[in-house]
Amino acid sequence: RPGGRMARAEPPAATFERRVLRSAAEYHYLRVRLELPDGGARPSVAQFKQLVVSALRELHGEVGAALPVDVLTYEEKTLSAILRVISSGLVKLWSALTLLGFYQNRRCAFRVLQTSPFLLALSGNSRELVL
């Protein structure tokens, strides 16, 4: 040992690990509204579901149309629904609904009002709260 000193071990350099946690939820829920500006015939729940499937097929082909989407609630009066989709298919469903422009040769538009991995989060909307 030169100089009679003990070699001092350097403390290990601090290491940082970045972790991104994806939602572990199996499903995502979307509150959507179909807008039909001319006020014609309103789709039944079966026609609404078929419209969602055809939107997926139009944008993503047969693979998109096979995406499991459930209509949990549907109000024919307001054309509002809560949809359930597996989390891995959320972007496919959302994009297909956004790009749909026609229902029975009439202009239409889907509006995604809320989305959450928790169904309970869609039970109330603070933006529609009446005090």
TrEMBL record:
Gene Ontology cellular component terms for the protein in this record: multimeric ribonuclease P complex; nucleolus
Gene designation per UniProt: Rpp14
Family: Belongs to the eukaryotic/archaeal RNase P protein component 2 family.
Organism: Aramus guarauna (Limpkin)
GO biological process, one term: tRNA 5'-leader removal
Keywords, alphabetical: tRNA processing
InterPro entries listed in its UniProt record: Pop5/Rpp14/Rnp2-like, Rnp2-like_sf
Protein name, entry field: RPP14 protein
Molecular function terms, GO-annotated: ribonuclease P RNA binding
Segments crossing the lipid bilayer: none
Tree of life domain: Eukaryota
Residue runs in coiled coils: none
Pfam family, one: RNase_P_Rpp14
